[in-house]
Amino acid sequence: MLSKSQARAFFLGGTGLFSAAFLALTYDSHKQVPNLTNEDKLTPEVIAGKAIWEDNNCMGCHTLFGEGAYYAPELTLIVKQKGRPYLRLFLKDPEAMYPGERKMQNYNFTDEEIDNVISFLEWCGEVDLNGFPAKPPLGRVAAPVVSTGKSDVPQPEMFKTVCTACHTVGGKGNMVGPPLDAIGNKFKREDLKAWINDPQKIKPGTAMPKIPMTDEQLNEVLDYLMSLSSE
Fold it and tell me: Among 90, 106, 115, 228, which residue's Cα sits nearest to residue 172?
């Protein structure tokens, strides 16, 4: 059993030791901030995007780095998940992409403002957060379906930059929507065209957005999809 003087010395020594460790770790953390946050990549566009984010109170609905409201999706990694072209289309007119579904209002951003917001979100996604946000412990388990047939049609830019935000081909892309391997065997071209042109008309309430495309872009996507067939 410790005497009073020994207990006092133990308390003071322990307090001093852990206080020193705390100060050392705090100093080390602050020293690493510039590298962990990519401070050198804080461009004028990123700073302008942050100002737009704050001026429009985006955290009133969204979370960023886990902070904010939980009404709308977490956006820390949104650029990596969806890509700039998809986000540019969405921010231009949220309702147009998800008619009757999306509750996000149209802020009528200019093209420059949209690019600045995306630049800010892209910078956020590059910050080293030691694994945050974590992947769900029970992710969607599905083996990638790989088409066995060979396609001579190159993957169009619209498909690469927008469609893969939700769909996969050969296991590459995002598994929000169904994989599109061998889809050319399952649907006729005119059926796919009608679906892409107006998903809500074919299936009211579907999560598939109406992607604004030119006739040329639509035909390129259809050519590619119809080439995805199994042997």
Answer: 228
Q: How far apart are the C-alpha atoms of 167 and 195, rounded to whole Å?
A: 15
Which phi and psi (to 5°) does residue 173 adopt?
130, -160
Contact 149, 228 (CB under 8 A): yes
H-helix or E-strand spanning residue 63:
strand 63-64
pLDDT tens by residue, 84-136 = 999 999 999 888 777 767 678 899 999 999 999 999 999 999 998 877 777 65
Beta-carbon contacts of residue 63 (< 8 Å; ≥ 6 apart): 69, 70, 74, 75, 76
Give which of 77, 81, 171 is closest to 131, Cα–Cα: 77
- Phi, psi of 122, rounded to the nearest 5 degrees: -65, -40
In this prediction the pTM is 0.70
Domain encompassing residue 83: 39-126
In-domain check, residue 20:
no
Confidence of residue 231 (pLDDT cuts 50, 70, 90): low
Q: Alpha helix locations (H) across 93-188?
A: 94-97, 111-126, 157-161
d(CA 210, CA 65): 30
Give the chain's domain count.
2
How far is the C-alpha of 174 from the C-alpha of 35, rounded, in Å?
A: 29
